[in-house]
Amino acid sequence: MSGQTSLHIDGRLVRVKAGTSVAAALRVADSMGVARTSISGQPRAPFCGMGVCQECRVRVDGRRMLACQTVCAEGMQVETTA
Amino acid sequence: MTILALEHCDLLIVGAGPAGMAAAVAAAPSGASIVVIDDNPAPGGQIWRDGPGAALPPAARKWREALERHANIRVCSGTRVIAAPAHGELLLEDAVRGWRMQWKKLILCTGARELLLPFPGWTLPGVTGAGGLQALIKAGLPVEGERIVVAGSGPLLLAAAATARAAGAKVVRIAEQASLAAAAGFAVKLLRWPGKAVQALTLGDTRYRTSSRIVAVQGRGQVESVLLRQGGREVQIDCDRVACGFGLTPNTQLGQMLGCALAPADTGAPPLAVDALQRTSLPGVYAAGECTGFGGSERALAQGTIAGYAAVGNERAARQHEHERARWNAFAAQLHRSFALAPDIRQMPQPDTLVCRCEDVPFSALAGCSGWTDAKLHRRCGMGACQGRVCGDAAQFLFGWTPPSPRPPLSPARIATLAGLAVHGNDVDRQ
Ligand SMILES: Cc1cc2nc3c(=O)[nH]c(=O)nc-3n(C[C@H](O)[C@H](O)[C@H](O)COP(=O)(O)OP(=O)(O)OC[C@H]3O[C@@H](n4cnc5c(N)ncnc54)[C@H](O)[C@@H]3O)c2cc1C
Ligand code: FES
Questions:
Q1: Which residue of B141, B144, B242, B358 is the best one to mutate when testing the A interface, meaning the one whose CB has the most A CBs within 10 A?
Q2: CATH code, A44
């Protein structure tokens, strides 16, 4: 795979290699790739990497998605703490 | 009102890992209309993930190309099963739509997930599953220059470490809970499976330590160090990431929801029960790969091939692969024996360690519960988004509780998809 994809994560422009998952892109945008906060307010980042734990859920273009099973697309708007 | 499309196929395969791919390819020459669905963005399953950080091995390419070559196989990636609204029918959802799929034969190839167990600090950003880290790296997670500790049990730790290292990370320790005798015994036995022995040699690592356990991961806001117990002493290792995995648990939720019987398990979570032709207890429903017990991709391929042939009525061809399956079953049995979890792994959580990561339920709140129902109703354990897939496995290991029986929706779904269920009946056919 070649080329780059640009997307916005919480309004910030992030460039990643084409084919990168949103979970991986979160790490590019933020030091530890925090996706959400837990019900008691702790930061949480992708954990299982395979669609099981649901810790990576974010809003992608307004839809709730699992970041680890979503591939970045050009112009995507990702919001964390969904 | 939402009206969902209704589609039909002869053979529906859930899961496009090695088992699902092999099943589809074996069934294809029959001319049956075959649909393979998988929740990941591309076929390949856990072992053959594609992405900017992955180098797809030739075997994976071969299977993918085989799927593409057959015009009667349709692969729906990024698609998950939500419910089973009627006999012979599944409700599916992708990023765009929900729809109903009617099948005549069904093969469950839903694979396995990692067993993730709680220890102090396991919720800190920077802690991931071991296979999880591997998956994230293949999907483009940058780990160059990061110091990574891999801990838990089984050969997957070595595979994860090798992937991390190839991506430029410094793997500072691989902590295996099994004893040196068990791990070395496994390596010796691998000589019976030459392909695997070569794999093990290439995975060998000087940072590998046996009889080694996680005590705690420490850090403010993210991982800064890990405390390990190695034999009798404790060591603290500075690191940026901790990848942990304690073996695999079969994904039986869909099978259970449909009513397939489980097989008795010596240790851990029970897999789906299958007979010599990979048939489950439910007529017309087959299962192959790690949802029938974990044991590697070769076993999954052999089982998938048998299931694929059997599902289209070619029992003769199916039986020709029984020998191959037996060989890899023996490998799986060896794997289970060598990396059985030590009882003291149960002592990892401290009273304030969260067991349920979705509802933030600490170990102390569960220790007094009488079982799952009690924990669920009174502590909200397993009531969150993961539907007990993480904490249910953990509680089964820690307390011996049988995890909650799966109920629809099998995974969180959009309202529009669920609303479509309300208008049920053949009239929807024409839409
Ligand atoms: C995280 C992880 C990493 C691994 N890495 C390695 C490795 O590097 N080397 C190795 O030898 N073995 C590895 N394994 C073991 C590996 O699982 C097997 O060897 C092999 O992939 C099993 O094949 P399978 O077809 O049975 O299942 P899988 O490969 O697990 O495929 C099952 C597929 O079904 C999908 N699925 C499950 N349920 C549903 C549903 N309800 N709806 C839609 N899709 C669904 C899953 O997402 C997955 O894509 C790994 C296992 C895990 C869990
Ligand atoms: S990281 Fe677990 S579901 Fe995405």
A1: B141
A2: 3.10.20.30
